[in-house]
Write a structure and sequence with these properties.
Phosphate binds at residues 87, 125-127. By secondary structure, this protein is α+β, with helices and mostly antiparallel strands. It is built from five helices and nine strands, in the order ββββααβαββαββα. It has a single domain (15-74, 86-243), classed as Ribosomal Protein S5, domain 2 (2-Layer Sandwich), CATH 3.30.230.70. The protein binds uridine-5'-diphosphate. Residues 71-72, 75, 87, 122-127, 164, 178, 181 line the site of uridine-5'-diphosphate.
Amino acid sequence: MERIDGRNKDEKRIINIIKDYIKYPDGSVLIETGNTKVVCTACIEDKVPPFLKGTGEGWITSEYGMLPGSTQSRKPRESSKGKVDGRTMEIQRLIGRALRSVVDLKLLGERTIWIDCDVIQADGGTRTASITGSFVALACAMEKLSKIVEFESYPIREFVAAISVGIVEDEPLLDLCYEEDSNAMVDMNIIMTQSGQLVEVQGTGEQRPFTREEMDELINLGQKGIMELIELQKEVLGESASKIGSSKQ
Ligand code: UDP
């Protein structure tokens, strides 16, 4: 089977991460993966939500949105009354969980890191691009914070990235574009750390159920893509990448 953009089955889209894309946040990137483009920012606030007050622990939380013109048919802005739809809620909570899984929130102290992911062009895989990009934005913000605050050890334990995989016409494929995603028998989003540990797997066999063997094959494909993404994150972060994972535990 030929892929719509001529890629091999295990080939991810062309990816580009531009660091310091926005001037004011503590960390920011533009991540482009094929035709999907997301701006991710990280802003540090010196307070925590009420449930963490007095605990000494920090928090990482995320918001996600799509520009009205980012999709093939215009997506109206979400209500300004603070209500977001189910998909948006699911995605923003996913991004928060993914990043918290690799940060020691005790070392962070009573601070909140706000991660904002804004999709400016959507062509499949916006949540996975948001996670991969916002990890870099978070790492930039942490690097900045580490120049002001003396951390006992570095709060980021390891790298994390995410990619989509799926089964299209019975073929397992890496990094689906919208066209593939909308025809997929099975689609799955995989979030994994540098050490190959899974943070989350969201897999759905909507057109047909899938076997354990197929799931393993998809996870192996995803792992290959994620390790390549982490190499790129390291390259983009340059010297500050070496601090990640340098904490004592
Ligand atoms: N999409 C869209 N409008 C929407 C939601 C999604 O056009 O309201 C498109 C968009 O290209 C997106 C793709 O459908 O990337 C797949 O959406 P999904 O909910 O699976 O999330 P994603 O793959 O972006 O994480």
